[in-house]
Design brief:
about 210 residues; mainly beta; 2 domains; three-stranded antiparallel beta sheet; 18 strands
């Protein structure tokens, strides 16, 4: 079976009446920043029916995680670089039932040298769901995989893309840069659910694959 990477729409029922795109309502802002420190604030409205909410931030430099925090208002310290950083937030929202809602937001952090603070810019994130992505034809197959996992970059062919695979404990088990279709040997990996991430200069694609 093939999976197509496409936009994730997270709709829930609020007070049993109307559907609400809760993922689009989540935002992140900078509370304070210096050259080496950044304090953030997660903004999410109070909604009826939400039982609990968990937040996890990941800070990337050149596609590598340099810090992660489970906190809606994290402070990243000792950032000794003025290069562009990538910031991703995963929010898990329990609204009852068997499957919680997972929302992904990513941003670009740029340091404004002449003003001495960091600026936060939105970054496009797409995640897997049934259906075809209109603008990108990226595919990961077969799913489940037992020997080899093929990553077809589709319309991203020719674009420098960092491909990462994380196991169920969020441990990075594979990382490689490619600009064309890539074959990953997964025969030696433990069985289970894995997260596949593809990073370009302005986009993050995220999906889940099963290795059996």
């Amino acid at each position: 079976m093939r999976i197509l990477l496409t936009a994730l729409a997270c709709l829930i029922t609020v007070s049993g009446i109307a559907q609400y795109n809760i993922c689009d309502s989540i935002s992140v802002s900078i509370v304070n920043s210096t050259e080496t420190d950044i304090t953030l604030q997660t903004n999410i409205p109070d909604l009826a029916g939400v039982l609990s909410t968990e937040f996890q931030f990941f800070l990337f430099l050149d596609g590598i995680v340099i810090d992660n925090q489970v906190n809606p208002s994290p402070t990243f310290q000792n950032i000794y670089t003025t290069n562009t950083l990538e910031l991703c937030l995963t929010t898990v929202i329990d609204v009852g039932g068997n499957t919680p809602i997972t929302c992904d937001e990513c941003y670009i952090l740029e340091y404004i040298v002449d003003q001495g603070f960091w600026n936060l810019l939105s970054m496009e994130v797409t995640s897997v769901e049934g259906g075809k992505l209109e603008n990108l034809s990226v595919q990961a197959y077969p799913n489940p995989a037992s020997n080899n996992l093929t990553i077809d970059l589709g319309d991203l062919t020719g674009v420098n893309t960092t491909i990462k695979l994380y196991d169920s404990s969020s441990k990075l088990v594979f990382e490689k840069q490619s600009s064309s279709t890539l074959l990953i040997d997964v025969s030696g990996y433990a069985k289970g659910l894995y997260t596949l991430e593809l990073f370009t200069s302005n986009k993050v694609l995220r999906s889940q694959v099963v290795i059996e």
